[in-house]
Write a structure and sequence with these properties.
With 298 residues, the protein is of the alpha/beta class. It is 51% helix and 14% strand. Strand 10, helix 4 and strand 11 form a beta-alpha-beta unit. The termini are far apart.
């Protein structure tokens, strides 16, 4: 199977490496070659290290059986959509989605745009190596109506637990809405510890998460693991959760800082503005989200 991966961040590099490991013909498109791309490493103790399948290539070429779009939300420009359209293949969006963005994508690409929920959690370490987790409780999910059973089987065979289900775009939007206020809080503070040391910010994040969860319930049905994680939302529970994470898996703090507090500040701004627009258009209170977003954009 010939697969194009668009984006050479942590998620794109993990998918590319896993698919390459089971014989897929993988091309990775990126405007810039990742610095010191030395492979991808499992961070869960399995010891699995895969060769990095990344090469920098800015052009799009037809002939792929499927494409995986693993780019930040703000990178989905008209030019990128035009390039994806040239692939003439199903394009699986392995990225956070919200209603406006998804409508724009589907308007350009039609049914070839396929929603997914990536079950990859990872970050690019300072030396260029990707460290990642594949939680069994949060598999990669691809929309079942797209006819991508072969891709799902390849991912599963490579070690990325994958399943097909319907209405994935709605589930993705619900997950994105639920966790976006916490991402905005991390991006505004610059680090996990700084966020937890700021009572005012924690209060704003807690209130904004409550607003976002009410909106998320209308957008779709998130997976079961979302309910478990949202139990930690709130100043006291977040601090308890941080303490537990530091004892059990200290690297998860490195991940949160690298992926959300630093690398995804632009994404938090972009999606945060959309989340507020969507909430207000549907008659939901978004006062706390507005306060948090204002703090983020300075």
């Amino acid at each position: 199977m010939k697969i194009t991966v668009v984006g050479a961040g942590a998620t794109g590099r993990v998918f590319a490496a896993h698919l390459s490991s089971v014989g897929a013909d993988v091309s990775v498109l990126s405007r810039h070659a990742p610095r010191a791309a030395n492979g991808v490493e499992r961070a869960d103790g399995s010891g699995r290290i895969l060769a990095d399948a990344v090469h920098a290539h800015a052009g799009f070429a037809a002939g792929s059986d499927a494409a995986l779009a693993c780019v930040p939300a703000e990178a989905v420009s008209d030019d990128l959509l035009a390039g994806l359209d040239e692939l003439r293949a199903p394009i699986v969006f392995m990225m956070p989605l919200l209603p406006e963005s998804w409508h724009r994508i589907r308007e350009r690409l039609g049914a070839r745009a396929v929603a997914a929920l990536p079950g990859v959690t990872g970050y690019v370490r300072s030396d260029g190596v990707v460290r990642y987790w594949l939680p069994r409780s949060a598999p990669t999910v691809i929309d079942a109506d797209a006819g991508l059973g072969e891709l799902a089987k390849l991912l599963d065979a490579s070690g990325v637990h994958t399943r097909l289900q319907r209405e994935v775009s709605a589930a993705n939007q619900a997950v994105t809405a639920t966790f976006l206020p916490l991402v905005m809080a991390l991006a505004a503070s610059g680090s996990t510890h700084a966020a937890l040391a700021n009572p005012m910010l924690l209060g704003e994040a807690t209130d904004a998460t409550g607003e976002a969860q009410r909106l998320a319930a209308e957008l779709g049905h998130p997976p079961g693991w979302v309910s478990l994680l949202t139990k930690f939302v709130g100043p006291r529970m977040l601090k308890l959760g941080l303490g537990l994470a530091e004892r059990v898996s200290p690297e998860t703090i490195d991940y949160a800082d690298a992926q959300f507090a630093r690398a995804r500040r632009g994404t938090a701004r972009w999606l945060g503005a959309e989340l507020i627009r969507v909430a207000e258009a549907r008659g939901f209170d978004a006062a706390a989200m507005r306060t948090l977003h204002a703090r983020l954009i300075g």
